[in-house]
């Protein structure tokens, strides 16, 4: 698996050291991509590859999915965080499923269990109180394309590509990608993208609303720096305020109106009269004198 997570340079998050237990695998052994651990935050705000899980494809891919869940749980407990960038290794965001692993998932029940596991994991990821960016370098295919939709924003390098190839595998996107893509670009465009298994280069992706911006460089390090600068404009400010904004936007998208309004009131009560609010008021008073 090629996804890794980046936190902005001013942020930090501890790295999990306990390996996930293969015994917890519920049949979720199809691959997202190459043999790397996803969503691996860095102590220094950089990107750390985690080459591991060589060997049996079904076992290694199941372990990687468990690692993805562990990274999400880790991020749920990261109370100081504001932003997150998900990117790939060797200029590949995510190259799709390992067919050797998929062969081990031959029954309908296997597919449903995998679906439920990944829907749960990516929904939890989407609901994190962090502003998330998918930095798409190279190809984002199949499950990788679905993963990009769980992020708030998508930045593409000039040579990158997004493609939902599920139709060609005789299935549908089932990790929540269909619902999320419909919310992002609407039902008509989603139907075109999925039924045509369209290859979305950066220009097309930007035009239909999947991509938020095309970066200048395709170089792995330079594009990562561009993505950091792009994200910084949205996470500048006290963590409690940025996290609160993400929370109320998520509730507005997912909840009924009355529930969303109640969430607004609840979240506001944690900020009004708080340190960030009082400091901002004091600055304004000083500025106006």
UniProtKB/TrEMBL annotation:
It catalyses: (S)-methylmalonyl-CoA + H(+) = propanoyl-CoA + CO2; (2R)-ethylmalonyl-CoA + H(+) = butanoyl-CoA + CO2; (2S)-ethylmalonyl-CoA + H(+) = butanoyl-CoA + CO2. The keyword Cell division does not apply. Gene3D superfamilies: 2-enoyl-CoA Hydratase, Chain A, domain 1. GO terms for biological process: fatty acid beta-oxidation. SUPFAM superfamilies: ClpP/crotonase. It is an enzyme of class 4 (lyase). Residues 34-46 have a biased composition (Polar residues). GO terms for cellular component: cytosol. Keywords: Cytoplasm, Lyase. CDD domains: crotonase-like. It is found in: Cytoplasm, Cytosol. One of its GO terms (molecular function) is methyl/ethyl malonyl-CoA decarboxylase activity. It comes from the Eukaryota. Its main location: cytoplasm. This is Ethylmalonyl-CoA decarboxylase. It comes from Vombatus ursinus.
